[in-house]
Amino acid sequence: MKLTNEISVILRCKNEENWIGHAIQSIIDNIGLCEIIVVNNNSSDESIRIVKSFAQDPKLNFEKKNNYTKIKIINIESYSPGKSLNAGIKKATGKYTIIMSAHCVLKKINIKKSVKDLEKFVAIFGNQVPIWKGKRIKKRYIWSHFVNKPIINMFSKLEDRYFFHNAIAIYKTKYLKSNLFDEYLTSKEDRYWINNQIEKKKKFLYDPSIEADHHYTNNGNTWKGLA
Questions:
Q1: Phi–psi pair at 129, nearest 5 degrees
Q2: What is the pLDDT of residues 68-119, one digit of tens each?
Q3: Which of 11, 74, 163, 214 would be 128's cystine partner, CB 3.0–4.6 Å?
Q4: CB neighbours of 189 closer than 8 A, spacing ≥ 6?
Q5: Which residues, at least 6 apart from 42, have a Cβ–Cβ distance to it below 8 Å?
């Protein structure tokens, strides 16, 4: 079995028509033809039509294509970050699960390396490059955590807790299914999750060799002082 057949990717979507196509294509380009699960939170724009344009046609030999893959769409009500992630996790069939923001564009990842690292770490998250309307911006605030060296169990002085970010992260699916995210939290479910893992004596890795461009959206919470 190809390693790509063991990968599930979860994208949360709420009116992401500007970026979700870029996100999916970047997954196909950098990972291959894997299972992509889009958790849709009542999108009212063209997001889901764009997602469906990537879905494989069973009548075609999509293995020879580079822009069609296995697509699952899950619709949820009463959104919370944890609820949407858990809905995707429960439907994931791959041995490994990648969680990525729908407005991120994956630039670099070595799946074989990450899978090997998951033998030692409960989760791995990658570098994010903040992009504001096409312009790379200085890594201030939350972005200052994304440095150029690997760090085991990154601790944030800014937040006074261990730091982890789900905009691009990889896990063992089996572990996620038995350690789901808190569905009552309205934000930072990834931070709470990783701090719970530390309490269980688990280790996690920040690996800057995994990299994604994180594009500005109007509803973003971490773009202070840009506009």
A1: -105, 110
A2: 789 999 999 889 999 999 999 999 999 999 999 999 999 999 999 999 999 9
A3: 214
A4: 80, 81, 82, 85, 166, 181, 182
A5: 14, 75, 77, 79
